Amino acid sequence: MVECFHVHVLSGTPGVVRGRCWETFRVGEVFTVARDADGDHPVSLTVREIRVYDRPIDELSPVLTAELVLTGHGAEHLAEETLLCRAPSDQP
Questions:
Q1: What is the pLDDT of residues 10-69, one digit of tens each?
Q2: How far apart are CA 30 and CA 37, in angstroms?
Q3: Residues whose CB is less than 8 angstroms from the CB of residue 41 and which lie 6 or more positions away in sequence, other chains included
């Protein structure tokens, strides 16, 4: 099963998105696919920070809405309604 974060809003700052997770994500994990209407795009975007209600947290539980600060390659594929995905084997 592929685990995804659903991007709802781009914040205007490069690499910062707001959305909702479908699985548990932690700081330091890497998204490897950006999935949109045009298909899957390879990316390597590391979660540098997770913010919920403007407070940093280390782990994001399913169904919570949060802001992610991402670094790496592939940010040009970020858009509203993009799914950022990782395979379960990518977990630490």
A1: 987 889 999 998 788 899 999 999 999 999 999 999 999 999 999 999 999 887 899 999
A2: 22
A3: 33, 34, 35, 74, 77
Residue 16 CB partners (closer than 8 Å, separation 6+): 10, 67, 68, 69, 70
Which three-class secondary structure string do you get for the chain?
A: CCEEEEEEEECCCCCEEEEEECCCEECCCEEEEEEECCEEEEEEEEEEEEEECCEEECEECCCCEEEEEEEEECHHHCCCCCEEEECHHHCC
* pTM assigned to the model: 0.87
